[in-house]
From TrEMBL:
<keyword id="KW-0808">Transferase</keyword>
<dbReference type="InterPro" id="IPR003669">
    <property type="entry name" value="Thymidylate_synthase_ThyX"/>
</dbReference>
<dbReference type="GO" id="GO:0070402">
    <property type="term" value="F:NADPH binding"/>
</dbReference>
<dbReference type="GO" id="GO:0050797">
    <property type="term" value="F:thymidylate synthase (FAD) activity"/>
</dbReference>
<dbReference type="GO" id="GO:0004799">
    <property type="term" value="F:thymidylate synthase activity"/>
</dbReference>
<dbReference type="GO" id="GO:0006231">
    <property type="term" value="P:dTMP biosynthetic process"/>
</dbReference>
<dbReference type="GO" id="GO:0050660">
    <property type="term" value="F:flavin adenine dinucleotide binding"/>
</dbReference>
<protein>
    <recommendedName>
        <fullName>FAD-dependent thymidylate synthase</fullName>
        <ecNumber>2.1.1.148</ecNumber>
    </recommendedName>
</protein>
<dbReference type="Pfam" id="PF02511">
    <property type="entry name" value="Thy1"/>
</dbReference>
<keyword id="KW-0489">Methyltransferase</keyword>
<dbReference type="GO" id="GO:0032259">
    <property type="term" value="P:methylation"/>
</dbReference>
<dbReference type="InterPro" id="IPR036098">
    <property type="entry name" value="Thymidylate_synthase_ThyX_sf"/>
</dbReference>
Amino acid sequence: MILHINVLDKGYVRLVNHMGSDLTVVNAARVSYAKQSEALTEKDIRLIRFLAREGHTSPFRHAVLQLEIYAPLMVARQWWKYIVGSAHYEGTGDSLEAWNESSRRYITEEPAFYIPSAGQWRGAPENSKQGSGGLVAWELGEKYTRELMEYTQLGIQKYEAALADGICAEQARLFLAAYGLYVRWYWTASLQSVAHFLNQRLEHDAQQEIQDYAKAILNIVKTLFPVATEELLTRQQA
């Protein structure tokens, strides 16, 4: 079973725990008729397909994942929108969401930053105000990799100097370059919520960095819930 997948230069997604399987979805649906399956059958697979196709989503909320994620702040804040909206999207009332994040109010571990390599910088899109276009020339990318490294190192030096002078950690952190700063959090979510996240963040127009995390989560989720994951993603992308 896939437990840990590295993402970007320093990030990762780690499976902490999970509850249920494809059979959980089936039995959550069949309880209405006081029935239960002991092993997943072709009939059960057809039921999962029917539930996904017809939008009967509550059985998918009985399967739950708990993940530890280490990602740049710019990714975390995009991700956070799914927690804020989870109780309301599509009228599902899905509240099986939890998010607990490390805080530099309390910890002073060595800061880590996402630094794109020279070959990873993207240009602005031609016909949109957001997103990105193709890769820029290597020479331009090399310039901005170098400048970003210098910028973040200056921030680290000032952050450490402030701590050494007795400034509290919650204010000293203001010197750190925020968007590239890696943060760590636990995300606990129902299978339906995870599928909703994947359907949006696996799309080609999603930011590349969060796409990379979505692909890692997809590898974990389809290992745990192969049938339900395929049906939820297929039906919602249709």
